[in-house]
Records
---
Amino acid sequence: MGLKDKEETAKSQSDLIMEYFRKNPNRDIRHPEIVDWATAEWLARTRGKRLRDPDRAIRKLSQSGFLVKISKGVYRYDPELANKRELEDFSQAQKEMIMKRDGYKCVVCGKGRDSGVELQVDHIKPKDQGGKATIENGETLCAQHNFQKKNYRQTESGKRFFIRLYEASKAINDKQTQDFCSQILEVYEKNKVNGHIVWEK
Ligand SMILES: [Zn+2]
């Protein structure tokens, strides 16, 4: 089975799950209820294929903002929220405008498609922090830097902390603490993590 086929199948499995949630808006639905329904429905519609990993599909739908996680294993479809969420996504035309403005290059490393990287349009202020789908709030990132931005957010406060500690120890001439902070901050720099937070040595 080719990649395309896999994507198609995965897509329609999520669609099937969403179909059930859309039919039951604003109701807290437990995993077994949706899994049982989707498994039987998938089996019938595909004439015998098994639904693969519905739990994962539900989790992904929740992470993407289509479903609200109420508690462990309980999800809800809120049409109003889902609508709002869709409004916050960039349209294809906006994505094109943002990439054009950024010269079809990642704003962090400057690599473009000609360097073989995949370009993605990212919300500068993330959606879950109220970031809107405006051209000003968009930036072009390569897949690697988009991944890092999404996942290294937790390390930002760490870097800020060690910069503060570095400066405080420098002020009182505490060489040992200063050296300790330097070593940690050099690891950040060496790995190009959170480069937008500048450490002035
Ligand atoms: Zn990049």
---
Amino acid sequence: MKKAEMVVAGVMSGTSADGINVALVMIRAASPKNARSGYPFPLAGGGGLERPPHTFELIGHAEYSYPAKIRAAILAAMNADRARVADLARLNVLLGELYAGAVLTTQRRFRRNAELVGCHGQTLYHQGEPQYFLGHRIATTWQTGEAAIIAARTGVPVVSDFRPADMAAGGKGAPLVPFLDFLLFHDKQVGRIVQNIGGIANLTAIPACAAADDVNAFDTGPGNMVIDALAEQLFGKPFDRGGKIAASGNVLESVVQRALSQNFFSAKPPKTAGREEFGREFASSFLRSCGRSRKEDVIATATALTAVSIADAVQRFVIHRGRGSRRTSWEMIVSGGGTRNATLMRMLAEALAPINVPLGTSDDLGLPSEAKEAAAFAVLAYETWHRRPSNVPSATGAKRPAILGKISYP
Ligand SMILES: Nc1ncnc2c1ncn2[C@@H]1O[C@H](COP(=O)(O)OP(=O)(O)O)[C@@H](O)[C@H]1O
Ligand SMILES: [Mg+2]
């Protein structure tokens, strides 16, 4: 049934493979009466996003870490040379059970039941650019976590597998969160750079007064992925909690500059990255380029690479882009697990200072930064349920708007 008001659970598990985020979101179609409550979504036209405003309210958010064994199995599954087909098939079902459990626990915790679930799934492989395969040019993406299981356990329909429809329309299948970024954060006075720092770091740039098709979005490079890999390898820790290790080290500037000279950073957007670009192999060669430096210096340098590559992308591809945009002022709104790394946030603020971009978090604007991506998949599911497109073609490179995802019924 199509309803104007719905509680939707968004479920996200990102490339860090750290765990599952669930956001319970109340979404209301606009009417003059409720247009003033919650977060208003006044929408500019264009780009397939033309429609009446909604209101959006976060009921609650919860985070569930993957048990160590499951995280190890997921990371192994992402390793194309070693993954076994039987294990991939089993992991799909196991993750479906875990996602369903996460939704049910979150519903009990906030005493609200979802009427619809939007589940991103765990990306095992993403290749946004077409490459030759058996004589055909193919782009592909693969998110796992069986939606039929989630639908069966929760008793409500589940939208999953959001990315392929955008790719079938000629897009890279990513990023998809710009849809929510635009709805929540576009502003008349100031340009906004909505920066997520997960395993990979990605930004959505929304010029002041923009229509949806002015939105520019792309991956800026590593987020926490390289820091995490090196923290594991050098300190036996899954990540650098609070950025404490990085704070006790010195940045090796020449290593940062050498890493930045890689093609990925100078390539023009739209562009996407994943473990294929910044996974184990990248971390190993980064470690080698640090020579015999202290372990703390290596972590500080990896942290600086994330901060400097973000500021560099902002300068190259946001501020110096497009008509007259040089004169607009910009601010950055950060979300994702990286906001909890104080050293990374300090380095990012320092890297942005010379280009006059102040830094805030999505928490400052009322949306907990670790809930944002999960909330985005609730909103995308709501759009799909109402048979409306929700890719942002200017962000993914798609030739047309596309209705995203597949629906599993309980
Ligand atoms: N307290 C913390 N201190 C430092 N880093 C943290 C902290 N909490 C989370 N992180 C970082 O955030 C990452 C997870 O961020 P998340 O936004 O969930 O990424 P993804 O979307 O890739 O799963 C962790 O792998 C870790 O690097
Ligand atoms: Mg995560």
---
Amino acid sequence: MRALQLVADRQLELVETPGPAAPAEGEVQVRVHAVGLNHLDVWGFRGMAFAKRKLPLVVGAEAAGEIAALGAGVTQFKPGQKVVMYGAMTCGRCAACHEGRDNLCENVGGIMGFHLDGFARDLINMPARLVVPVPDTVSLRDAACAPIAFGTTEHMLFDNAKLKPGETILVHAGGSGIGTAAIVMAKALGCTVITTVGDDAKAEKAKALGADHVINYKTDRFEGVTRKLTAKKGVDVVFEHVGGEGFNGSLLCLKRGGRLVTCGSTAGPTVTINLMQLFQQQYKIFGSFGCSLRNIRDSLSKMAAGQLPVIDTEVPLAEFERGLERLESRKVFGKVIVNF
Ligand SMILES: [Zn+2]
């Protein structure tokens, strides 16, 4: 079978390897059809000093496919059934796993495609408990966006920020994979959506997607425009994943008691926060990473109900690197998908 391996920093190789053995008890074998790309893949490709991993490593952290074979004792799946896979090797035994807080597993073995071999290969054996069925009406291309892009967004908006119908939300980087997902989900809930983008072409696309107000952060200060749009009251929720210098601007966009939820720091990981502002304004800041299996199931249900991911580009497996370049270029609007 084919497997796409990272053999050194910034060096990928498509290799032929023997396929996996028959799935063991409690496992399923999945034929992978689509991999979604995320910034995590860009970090992994570039190499990160602190990441504990051994090369070569099969890349791909988010994927959809169909059941190819069943191990003993697995009765909840059928051969040919469409599925997606949870991308972190959780233990399934700790209190967090038992309570369905999978992304807080106390014994997590690593993230697939980053610390452990990932999904960019024809066949993979997975514990059946980490495999989620895809509704018939959802394509595998769209489903491939559920485990990270949609799941992360679902966890941020609903488990952490507890976004409610009718609230106003500022979504940063509305053209990104999770930014587009946040716009789609918040609009479906009946929220007012303000979003930031880096060029006018993306502004048009964000409006077409349903955003009520779009701010080009390169030509306007988003915090000033947001305060004006909300009659100086501020927004209920800020959806952050940029960090850097804009983080304090994001806090200034919140109304008193507002919630900021963040899952990324693409513009820089370190910020200085005014603590007086934090407690006097009673802001709530949530760090969010990954999602639960339930978030993935809920994401797929939303897709079946018409809340679809925005797909920017599709590339074949051999052009995985071109997909990463597209993601790195910041020209992207929506998700980059690698097809098998
Ligand atoms: Zn666990």
---
Amino acid sequence: MRQRRSLTTAILLCLLIATGAAYREFRVRPDGFVHVAVLDVGQGDSIFITGPQGQQILIDGGPDLSTLTGIGTRMSLFDRSIDVLVLSHPHLDHVASFPAILKRYRVGTVILTGVAANASPYREMLQILKDQQIPVLIADPMKDVDLGGGMTLDILWPPPEYAGMETTKNPNDTSVIAMLRFGEDAMLLTGDMEEAEEQELLATGQDLHADILKAGHHGSKTSTSTGLLLAVGPDLAIISAGLDNQYGHPHTQTLNRLAHFGVPVRVTAWEGTVELVMDGL
Ligand SMILES: [Zn+2]
């Protein structure tokens, strides 16, 4: 009797696991829209984008390995590839998981600035890129990236001359700035851009208007200046920051500036991973 009961329990458990797996596969299937998940990785940045045809793009890799969990739950159990990785700049809170991701997944292309930096995960990442001969694109505003299915990544900044440079700038201000476009929708991705880079970006005269602004540098007071907000005119700002972080991000002054322009704000520290859908309309 006891044996029969444990067999029934085992069968029920298997059915439950199979149903869970089937639901997950259903949930992550391509549906013609762009899904953006600003992952809750604590004090850092990591944004996972799934395209209308299932393309996968990861912008930054967070301060630890929590990006692996974030992307793992948003991918098919059988999927071991990512189309594009973008490293905005080589600070630890953006690059930490990239070596592990490059070892675990087949990555199609990596986009970075190539600035010289000594952070050990960055050096490890560059070595893996070299060893595995993974194609690398140095960020170049003249070479935008067609992600397929009507989705593009318009690189806005910096110029390719940053590659190999021992930067004397604040490394935050070497961040890749890119506009993710899908149909009529646009999201401005800013890495850790602070005011100096915002001024350089504004001086290029490029069209910065976007529906969604991923606010620079975790909502610090030295980012998301009035000039940038006027040029972008976002309907929504997203800030990636850790709960009770030592820097006081997001800063009250930044939140006040956004409130002044009537821009609603979503913060990963307050609500966990922020999920958005771009329908292109
Ligand atoms: Zn950062």
